[in-house]
Amino acid sequence: MPNPEESRSQLGLVFPEAAAEAPAAFRRVWRVGQLVGEVRNHIEREYADVWVEGEISNYRPAPSGHMYFTLKDGEAQLPVVLFRRQAMLLRFRPEDGLQILVRGRSRCTSSAARCS
């Protein structure tokens, strides 16, 4: 069985004392809301204008005129909301299975810690 200390040094990783033994000054303890807020701010700042390619699934038009669907590929899924004003400008009818390229901005809702 490999020695954990040897594995760490082979990988070039350096760890401080075990977290339980580390002084509180070296640990950052987040409240859930704080962490989600920081992640949301980072995502919305760094991915404010993105192009994403994928397949439409779970397409649901709403009575309000908004369109809800999932954009997916073989590795991940991304929930999408297309608001009424932009939906009215579409030159095609969205449907499940359609491969599309979209431009938008990423938003992260803090209440559920879900990113879209």
Structure description:
With 116 residues, this protein is of the alpha+beta class. The protein is 23% helix and 29% strand. The chain is built from 3 helices and 6 strands. The strands form 2 sheets. It has a 4-stranded antiparallel β-sheet. It has a two-stranded antiparallel ribbon with strand order 5-6. The longest helix has 15 residues, at 32-46. The model has no long low-confidence stretch (mean pLDDT 82).
Determine the fraction of residues in helical runs and give it as a percent range: 10-25%
Mean pLDDT: 82
Q: Estimate the strand proportion.
A: 25-35%
Described by the principal axes of the CA atoms, the overall outline is: elongated
Number of helices: 3
Strand order of the largest sheet: 3-2-1-4
Please tell me how large the radius of gyration is: 21 Å
Q: By helix and strand content, what is the structural category?
A: alpha+beta
Sheet bearing the most strands, described?
4 strands, antiparallel
Helix and strand run: HHEEEHEEE
First and last CA, distance:
43 Å
The total of beta strands comes to: 6
Low-confidence runs (pLDDT<50, min 5 residues)?
none
Write the layout of secondary structure elements.
Blueprint: H1 4-11, H2 32-46, E1 50-61, E2 67-72, E3 77-82, H3 84-87, E4 99-104, E5 108-109, E6 114-115
Antiparallel strand pairs: 1-2, 1-4, 2-3, 5-6
List the defining traits of the structure above.
116 residues; alpha+beta; four-stranded antiparallel β-sheet; 3 helices; 6 strands; 29% strand; elongated
